[in-house]
Design a protein that fits this description.
The chain is mostly helical. Helix content is 72%, strand content 0%.
């Protein structure tokens, strides 16, 4: 699950870069010309175009070539993309050590997606010795920059006591931050914590609100949990919760109870 979510996130990030940069590059030939002249942004863009078949047929080997060109000059977005290629074996033999190398290079420059990715590698022991404390260190760096997956992973670490002492209050804090960015899994955790009184005083109304939001994000366990919680509530509590949910959703999760 981590892999598919991360792939979508990275692809979305890169495609946004393509759209913004295309205004000056105009087309594949223009992008290639700039890339060959040493423009790092154009090199990343050209790699992305080959990687995702934007304006040209997909070619993972050429994508790898242009990502590497920019990555070796210290461009963090390209370093992340190159790490991604090694992690999934796109255009190159899968190599977790190389993936970690390039994630780290970008992470040390403050790239939050790379920091989150590096944390996951430490948590799984892929390409590096398993180290939960080091995983938490990188999760925190990305989480403090607002990266929702890292916020979720940091919260989960506090829930399980992996790399940090168990702390339901800290877990709830970070689940909540990810939930407020629309992450269904985090919304489910916030709702479940309110239902069980973990990291917050038990509150079925707020549990109903967050579980409903998680269900709206199609988180698979949310509907069952919502049914369990609603069976414990009065009609007036459900009506209150539905009103809060609508206000929260309408305000894009900002200022929710």
């Amino acid at each position: 699950m981590f892999e598919s979510l991360r792939k979508i996130a990275i692809a979305s990030c890169l495609v946004c870069g393509v759209v913004s940069y295309s205004a000056s590059a105009q087309d594949f030939d223009g992008t290639k010309r700039l890339a060959e002249q040493g423009d790092l942004s154009a090199q990343l863009l050209l790699g992305t175009m080959y990687d995702y078949g934007i304006g040209i047929s997909e070619d993972n080997a050429k994508a790898l070539k242009w990502y590497r060109e920019a990555a070796e000059q210290g461009y963090p977005d390209a370093q992340l993309s190159l790490g991604f290629m090694y992690e999934y074996g796109s255009g190159v033999t899968k190599d977790d050590r190389e993936a970690v190398k390039w994630y780290r290079a970008a992470a040390l420059q403050g790239h939050m997606i790379a920091q989150s990715s590096l944390g996951i590698k430490y948590a799984k022991g892929e390409g590096v010795s398993k180290d939960d404390s080091e995983a938490v260190r990188w999760y925190r760096k990305a989480a403090e920059q607002g990266h929702p997956q890292a916020q979720y992973d940091l919260a989960y670490s506090y829930t399980t006591g992996q790399g940090v002492p168990e702390d339901d209050d800290e877990a709830m804090k970070w689940f909540r931050r990810a939930a407020e960015q629309g992450m269904g899994a985090a919304q489910y955790k916030v709702g479940a914590n309110y239902a069980n009184g973990y990291g917050a005083k038990q509150n079925l109304v707020l549990s109903y609100q967050w579980l409903t939001l998680a269900a709206g994000e199609r988180y698979p366990e949310a509907l069952g949990a919502l049914k369990t919680v609603s069976d414990l509530m009065t009609q007036s509590q459900i009506a209150e919760a539905q009103g809060l949910t609508l206000a929260c959703y309408s305000n894009n999760y900002f200022g929710c109870e």
